[in-house]
Amino acid sequence: AQSVTQLGSHVSVSEGALVLLRCNYSSSVPPYLFWYVQYPNQGLQLLLKYTTGATLVKGINGFEAEFKKSETSFHLTKPSAHMSDAAEYFCAVSEVGSNDYKLSFGAGTTVTVRA
Amino acid sequence: DAGVTQSPTHLIKTRGQQVTLRCSPKSGHDTVSWYQQALGQGPQFIFQYYEEEERQRGNFPDRFSGHQFPNYSSELNVNALLLGDSALYLCASSLPSGYEQFFGPGTRLTVL
Question: Which contiguous run of DSSP H or E holds residue B102?
Answer without folding.
Answer: strand B102-103
